[in-house]
């Protein structure tokens, strides 16, 4: 059985039937800028049009920002972008344009300005890069957030229970990653043994405050496996994940 199938079965076994809509986000740090009004002015007219040809069909792919609102310490909006995929139509390939819409928010938190993109990791990375170019005219001004290994360890140990733990930085020869699946993993001797050989990269835990089952990585990817809506998920990210970054 290949690893990805084994992982899917383990997730299903541990977390139960994942029939709810999974919400995902990735958090970034904005360098050298915390003026939300200036950010809003630079992003207000953001629009990119890309011409391409697929199967002899001319297509225009558009990326833009809409629905921006600003309140105290927060700038929110929606980043829309087009992609092309092929479908079979009467035996032949037909290019079809699909538009993704990713909510985002810039949040002043302490001395930091965070950008949170509520989308899967790869698409969130692309959006962060586009925003860096739009605001700063270059890449590298919006960068990945980082959670220190000891902070992620404390986070999972202070939760109700850990359900899944991935470890990296393993010092055992020929082993690059270790994982634990189950209930109450923090109370097992194997957990202590793994900590002696590596660091926690990913933890799926149950939050004491919110009751959500949530996965968090050290590069600030957050996935909520419990039933909730986007506004509540945003509150969870701000209240429980932002304090971990540093």
What descriptors fit this protein?
246 residues, alpha+beta, 2 domains, twelve-stranded antiparallel sheet, 12 strands, 27% helix, globular
Amount of helix:
25-40%
Total DSSP E strands = 12
Largest sheet: 12 strands, antiparallel
User: Which word captures the global form?
Assistant: globular
Distance N to C terminus: 38 Å
How does this model look, in words?
With 246 residues, this protein is α+β, with helices and mostly antiparallel strands. It has 2 domains: 3-22 and 147-218 and 225-244, no CATH class; 27-144, no CATH class. The chain has helices at residues 3-15, 36-43, 121-136, 149-158, 189-195, 230-241, and strands at 23-30, 47-54, 57-71, 74-89, 92-109, 112-117, 142-144, 161-168, 178-181, 199-206, 213-217, 221-224. Strand 11 (213-217) and strand 12 (221-224) form a beta hairpin.
Overview in brief:
The protein is an alpha+beta fold and about 250 residues long. It has helices at about 5-15, 35-45, 120-135, 150-160, 190-195, 230-240; strands spanning about 25-30, 45-55, 55-70, 75-90, 90-110, 110-115, 140-145, 160-170, 180, 200-205, 215, 220-225.
SSE layout:
Blueprint: H1 3-15, E1 23-30, H2 36-43, E2 47-54, E3 57-71, E4 74-89, E5 92-109, E6 112-117, H3 121-136, E7 142-144, H4 149-158, E8 161-168, E9 178-181, H5 189-195, E10 199-206, E11 213-217, E12 221-224, H6 230-241
Antiparallel strand pairs: 1-6, 1-7, 1-12, 2-3, 3-4, 4-5, 5-6, 8-9, 8-10, 10-11, 11-12
